[in-house]
Every structure is written in structure tokens, then in C-alpha cells.
């Protein structure tokens, strides 16, 4: 098989998003950085470092034949399950932001759930490519996969991390749908999802509060609605052109941690509707190239792997921007390539590397 | 792959779904930034900005001739922004002695978890010197805000009308309260952008919104009249040690209040030193009591308007009492006034005579007139706390109630109602709404921005009736019970009143409110003066004895101050047994000394200067003086006079 050059448009989109992200991380975190670490470049420097590391990893995975991962998919999955269990052990997992979801020491820590997302995608892609026709049967096709997904989801919810869990489940559903799952199965799954969600809300009332707060954040402006209001206070004044780079007001301690989950708010504040839309369009272009790779992939594994990776990234984009603009309740999902965050950025770029690896084998 | 086509179809579907989602996100972003943007920007602005207020300057209160009655003096206020205080320990040590406070207390204020802290009362409305000292510290986080406090240059003068403003420059009583909205203006502020931790946001300019000063108000009060009133009430208080006193002067042709005072009074800057009832009770508008005989003016006017009496030709015999519904109502004079014309009934303030007038009117007409003269409802003067008086319930009026009402007993009215009613009775019949705020001035340009105009609410009686009322009232002063109010050349008319005070429905013994309501000059009234003294001590408690002379002095001095011409053709005063007749001073200027036959003049002559010709004299020709007064002549040379 002839090897091609990796998809240039896709690389361009990712690099542009990374550049925008690094700039915005600098601007958004300057105040917090100098407040906490007396270094306004603190977050930006680290973001650049992780982006560089991530790009290196991406270059490596790009040049590894993606089909290798098929062989390792089960091992990865098992390792991830072990890690997910480990993280729940008190004293082993680190608690950050109310969830016990980190393993490691200080800056050198990872979120097993992030790795689980990718492992599960690789594993499902392998399984679906192997026996695609089985999916039409519920008992032998859908059910085992759903149980697997459910197990992973359950472990993540024990941390608890609804956001990551939801992204993972939705990504898997996209994968199963593209692979030819039956509509009626999805209908019943949807019903199940709704009732499970209701049960989850009933179990932890703070989720319901998050849910209602996004409908009318001003009803509890200092409590559950606080983040959304502060986010809207950033986006609203941005207008068409924005306040200009570095001119954000909300980054001055109004918006908590503006460099992570709410980086899009600062982007929209400083660069306005134009900047915000351009970033959305870059993600759209990324999606177009990604799905194109999926359609032209030489085998089922490549197709499903590509769809899984693109789906995972774009579901995060949808949820993050939806939250920041007040369409969804606050979930704690970062914006791929833009939000500050070391290990997840590296992992995402590694996944993009997989995508680019597939693009080298497309049949066009 | 067998199902490749299904997969590709579903991939295309996902692509379309992705595009749609991207579009939705962009639309949502646009909605937030454009549709909600303006509102969000305002809300956000508010959450970022911290305001340091700049108080507006309260408008001045002035009299009709621009004499300043209430103004402001600079009194800066200290504002602390704790987050910006860099060294609270050091700053507290420096600030404490300036404010004469404890160091620890100041430290506490400097570190309070508030965006802006004030120190009450030490840091509030400080002396300018104190503020300068604080400015001199140049300590971050301390701000001196321009502020001022109210100053009443004339002290207790006009205190009930002016009222006072509180520590926040908010009007609390009187004109200060009634017109607070106009006087107070709108506060401005310096607004700086703050981060969520209270620090100045870097690179953001402060915004200064200028305060809008309040408008000045020019009252109808005439400072000269008010000064006379205050002086006379001081004298009355010193002479009679009364429970209270009040005076009210109004222009009968407009309803403009020229002067108003109430005792006991207070100093507006130290209002806390007196009990609230003192500063809250502006007696001329607040108090309501039986008017007594002053009310007879209303009965008189009504009877005249209805053509029920001819003052000169109808006569009445007063045996000293009158029998009404089995009750014996006495005249104030024992034994009665005997046979009188109705003009003499008015002059003598004869109660049975007024009962007769009341009977001629009948209850419906009498009470209709009383109501149309404005009794039983507030006049609507621009002051709070006005009383409305009490009239008999229509159904409860029997012959006895009708009879007592006719001479001013059994009804309850306010002084301001009486003044407005009497003004209508003498001004040709127009009932004016009394008012105090004459003009509003722009605080900077001093131009008139709003002006009150006289409001004649209704016409109550005809000009002819009014003329007859004036004639009768002039007789009361020249020949009757009101002689004490006589002011030579000013044709004073008026009516005395002596009202028994009652407590819990029982009349008190030897405890009266004695009053006089006077008008002058009677050919063309320019002032109505009401004066009442509550329970004067060591005197006959009669209006004619206590109140009339005070009213006479106020009228005389006020008209002179206002520059009103003395009249030639007045009704001459009947002399009481103890009075010496007045003689008119002859004009002797220009006469040769030797032509002056000293014996021809009932005055003692004294000369000054060398010469043979009178060049000047004092008093001036035409003045009335007692017949043994001194006429001072200034002598000079005739020839030099001619040059």
C-alpha cells in the first residue's frame, strides 16, 4: 500500500487551534498566574511545553501504522480498567475539583478516564471492524459492547466525573451508530439513558442544581449560576470585534480558572464574535477532514477509529461551547487544543496522530 | 466490507449533523454577543465598577429678595477602600490621631472586608483642616470625597418653615423635606474598575460622573417681614411667657406667604436638642383650635353676600346674652352692648349680634360659606403636617351649634385656613392657595427654571361684599375691640379673637389662645397678618390686649419695610380714656424763626444751628405725634439755602 502525506488541512487546523489556544491561555491566565505563582507566564509556558510535547507525540503516532493499535487494544483497555479502579482507592487517587480522578504526583499526573476514552474507542473500532454484521443482533452484538461501555462509565461516575463519562458514552454511541447499529436499539438506549440520567440526578441533587442553574443562572447568581453568569459577562461585552487581545475584564478573578473550561469565554470577550466563529469553523474543518478520512480509510478499523477520535473531540467542543454560552449545564469539559491542561492535551494530540496515520493510507 | 455503504451513509449523516451543530453554536454565540450583548455589558460593567460617591450640592433656600436662608458649607468625608490600603498598621497609626480615634479601631476599619468603608461619625462631614491632614498622608486606599453639610445662617429664624436636612443631606422637615427631590440633586461618583479581589483593574481609566447639584428655591418669604415677626414673637415670649405663639403673614392678592413663625422654636443645626414635637409642630399650619371671634369675619362676609344685613341701618339690641335651644349664651361684655347698629355689633364683637346673623343665614348657608372659605379641608400649602380642622357633622348641627359657630366656637380651624379665608374676604373674594416656593433657580446659571403662580381656587364673595367687609374691619381697629392694632396711616382692619382652650372636651379656666387677624391697608390690602399667643401670663387674656398690638407693630413695620405708602384718608382712631390725642406735625421748613409763634403749636420746639430760617425739621410734616412731643428745628441762613 502506498503511503501518502498526512492530511495537511487537518494538521493546519490543529496547529492553528494550538496557537490560538496558547495565546488565549496566556491572556486568560496572566492575572491568576501572577496572583498564585507571581508569574503571569506560568500557565502559558506550561501550555507551550505540553503543546510541544503533544506535537512530538502526534508526529510519532502519525508515523506509526495505525493498525498496530488493533493488536494492543485489549491490553490498553485492561490497563485502563485497572487504572480506573486504582484511582478510586483513597490515598492513591488525587481529588481535584470535587472528583477523585487523578493519578500521579503534582504536575506529573494523569486522568485515567481520559485514557479510557481513547482505549475504548480503539477497542470498539477493533471489535466492530472484526464482526460488523453482529451489531444487528442485540444479544450477541450490542449488549456485550454496551455492558463494557457501561462498566467504564460506572467507574468514571464513581469519581464522580459526569462530563468525561458523558463524552465517552456519547462517543461510543456515535461509533455504534456509524458502524450500523439498528435505529430501534438506539431508541431504547435513548430511553434508558434518560431514565438513568433521572436516577443520577436523584442520587446527587447538585446535578439538578447545575441543570436548573443553566436555565436561569440569575436565580442563584452567587451559587450554582455563578460560573455561567460570569461566562456570559465575558462573552456579552465582546460584541463583534471583541475588546482586543489581553483586554479581558472577566479574567481578573471574576471567572474562576478562565484558562481551562471557560477559555472560550475569554476568547469571545477579547476577539469577539469573529474570533469565536473562526474557532468554531476551524473545528468544523477539522471534522470535515476527519470524517473524510473515516470514509476513505482502507479498512473498517481505520474508519471506526477515525470516527471515534473525531467524535470524541467534537462532542467535547459541542459540550464546552454549549456550557460557556449558557446552552448546557456546567459539566467541567475542556475545549480540545485550547484549554490549558497538560496530560489531556498530549493525549488528544496523540489521538490526532492516529487520525493522521490513517490519512496516510486512504484510498482516494 | 459488506456494510460499507451503510457506514458511509451514516458518516455523511454525522457530517451533516456536525455542520448543523457548528451552525447552532455560531448562532448561539451571536445571540449572546449581539442580542444579549448590550444588557450583559451593562450588567458586567456594574459588577466591575466600584463607585466612590460625589455628593451633589443641595440647593439653597432663599427669601424672595435672594437673602440666603439655608446653604451648605464644605464638609469632606473619608472613604476607605480596604483592599487598596497597603500598610494598614502604619496607616492606622497615622490616621488615628487625625480622627481622634483609637488606633485599633481605625485598623479594624482599614481591614474590613468591604469594598468601601466609612468611619462614622469621625470621618464623616469633617472640618476642611482634618481632610487636608488626611490628604497629606497620601496613603493608598484613603479617599476624600467632597461632601458638605447644611448651614442655616440665621439660626432659629424661620426654622419651622425651613426645616432641616439630616446627615445624608436628606430633607427631614419643612421645605427641606417637602421639596427634597428638587433640592437634593443627583449624586455623582468616581467609578473605577475593580477586579474580583477589589484591586484596581490594570489599564482601566476611572470614570467620573459629575454630580447634578440641586436647584435653589426662592421662597415667597420676605426676609424683612420675617425678621419683624421673629422680633415681635421674641418680645411677646419675653413679656407674656406663653405656652406658645405663632405669627403668619400673607399677601392677600396672591397667597404668597411673607412670613411665618412658631414658638417654641429650635435651631435647625441642633434640632436633636429639642423634643421632636417642637420641630414637627409648625403651629401656623399644624395647630387646630377654636378660632373665637376672628371667625366672625366669615359670618359677616356670608351675611353681607346674601344681603341679609345693612351694617349702618339694621340695628340689634344686646341684653348681654341670648337664649338658644334653652341654653344661655353670654356676650363677652357683662350687661351687654345695648342698642347697636350691626357695624357696631362687628366693632364690639358682640356675640348675640353674630348669633342673630347666623340665624338670618340659616344653617345650610352658614356652613356652605364656611366650607367655601376653605374650612374643613387642608389649604394645600407646600408644607407637610397641615391640619384640616373640624367642623360640626352636618347632621349634628342644631340651633345651638349654628349659634356658637356664628361667633367662632365649637369649630376647629388652623391659622393658615383663617388667613386664607380672611384674605379672600378682603381681596375681592378670591380664595388663594397659600404657598411658599416661589421660584426654582438653576444652581449654576441662577436662571429661573420654574415658577409658581398664584392659584385662585375659587371666588367666594363679590367685590362689593369684600369692600363692605374691609370697611367693617377698619372700624373694628379704629373704633372697636381692635384698637391695639392701629397703625397710623396704614388703615389697618382686623378682628380680635379669644378662644378658650379645651382639654378632653372641657374648657380650661383662664387658659386662652388670644389672637388677632389684621389686614392693611384697607383700601387696597397688601398684607394679612395673623398672630396668636397661647396662654399669656400675667395679663388679661384678650386678643385685643395681647395680640392686637403685636399685629399692629408687625403690620406697621412690615408695610414700611415693603415701601407701602401711608394713606391720607384713614378712619381716625377713637381715643381710649387713657390715651392722649395725636397732633399732626406742621410744615415749618423755610419759615423765618421770628414768624414762628411758638404758642400756636402744641409741640415743644427745640432749635439747633445758627441762623434765622428753618432748613429742616424732625419729625417730618404730616406725622402724627403726641401733643407734648418735641419738634426739632434745624436753623440756617436763608440766602445760602437759595443757592
UniProtKB/TrEMBL annotation, chain A:
Record's bilayer topology term: Multi-pass membrane protein
UniProt keyword list: Cell membrane, Cell shape, Membrane, Transmembrane, Transmembrane helix
Primary location recorded for the protein, binned into one broad class: membrane
Compartments, as annotated in UniProt: Cell membrane
Pfam family, one: FTSW_RODA_SPOVE
Alphabetized GO MF terms: lipid-linked peptidoglycan transporter activity
Record InterPro entries: Cell_cycle_FtsW-rel_CS, FtsW, FtsW/RodA, SpoVE
Protein name: Spore cortex peptidoglycan biosynthesis regulator SpoVE
TrEMBL record, chain B:
Classification via Gene3D superfamilies: 3.30.450.330, DD-peptidase/beta-lactamase superfamily, Penicillin-binding protein 2a (Domain 2)
Keywords per UniProt: Membrane, Transmembrane, Transmembrane helix
GO terms of molecular function: penicillin binding; serine-type D-Ala-D-Ala carboxypeptidase activity
EC number: 3.4.16.4
Matching PROSITE patterns: PASTA (PS51178)
Biological-process GO terms, alphabetical: cell wall organization; peptidoglycan biosynthetic process
Any one annotated GO CC term: plasma membrane
SUPFAM superfamilies: beta-lactamase/transpeptidase-like (SSF56601), Penicillin binding protein dimerisation domain (SSF56519), Penicillin-binding protein 2x (pbp-2x), c-terminal domain (SSF54184)
Catalytic reaction annotation: Preferential cleavage: (Ac)2-L-Lys-D-Ala-|-D-Ala. Also transpeptidation of peptidyl-alanyl moieties that are N-acyl substituents of D-alanine
Taxonomic superkingdom: Bacteria
A Pfam family reported for this protein in Swiss-Prot or TrEMBL: PASTA
Zinc in keyword set: no
Residues annotated as domain PASTA: 579-637
Pathway as given in its UniProt record: Cell wall biogenesis; peptidoglycan biosynthesis
Coarse class of the protein's main subcellular location: membrane
Compartment list: Membrane
Membrane-spanning parts: 12-31
Family as reported in the entry's similarity comment: Belongs to the transpeptidase family.
Name of the protein this chain belongs to: serine-type D-Ala-D-Ala carboxypeptidase
